[in-house]
Amino acid sequence: MGVTVENILKAKARLIDRVHRTPIITSEAINNIAGCSVLFKCEHLQKTGSFKARGAMNAVLLIKEENESKGVITHSSGNHGQALAYAAKSVGLPCCVVVPSNAPSSKRDAISHYGGVIELCEPTMKSRKETCAQLASELRYGVVEPFDDINVINGQGTIGAEIIEQVPDVDAVFIAVGGGGMASGVSLFIKEIQPNIRGQL
Known about the structure:
Layout lengths: L4 H10 L9 E3 L1 H7 L4 E3 L10 H15 L5 E4 L3 H13 L3 E6 L4 H9 L3 E5 L3 H15 L2 E2 L6 H7 L1 H9 L5 E3 L6 H13 L4 E3 L1
Parallel strand pairs: 3-4, 3-6, 4-5, 7-8
Antiparallel strand pairs: 1-2
Helix pairs in contact: 1-7, 3-4, 3-7, 4-5, 7-9, 8-9
C-alpha cells in the first residue's frame, strides 16, 4: 500500500462522517493586498482543531480492520497525539501518547481529554522514538507515526481531494510544511489529478 490517488480516495470514503469536510473561505482585504482571489482551507475547524485528525483517523480505522493490535501508540508534542487519542476513542481502542516533558500543559490536557494515556520522555526525537517503540512492544500496540506513515499521509491527502471538488478552477495551492505528511499527500493528489495547478511548499 502506497501513497496514491486511489488510496487517498479510499481514505476519503473511509472518513465520511468521521471528520469534517472543512469549508473554504476568502477575505476581501487579503484579496486587495494580493491583487488576486486568495482562498483558505479551514482546517482549524477540523475535529481536534487541526488537519491531523484526517491521517490519524484513517490509520486507526485500518488498524481496527486488521484487528491485530490491542491499541495504538504514537509520539507527539501535541496535535497528532490529540488526533490519535480522539480517533482511537471513537472506535473503542486504547491509545498511548509519548509526550516530551517540555510539551505545553494545554497540549497534554487535550490529549488526556480525548482519552489518551500520556507517557513522558526526554525532549529529543531519539527519546521519543525509542520510548514509543519500547512501549509498543510491551503493550502490543500499533505505532502510528505523526507524519512518516503511509496511512496518515493518505488521510492528510484528502485535503487535496476536497480542494479540487470545492474549487475546480484553482490556479495554485500553497501548502505549509512541518513534518511533510500533509504536504506529501495533498501535493501528490493535486498534481496527479490536475498537473497544471502550480504547487508551492
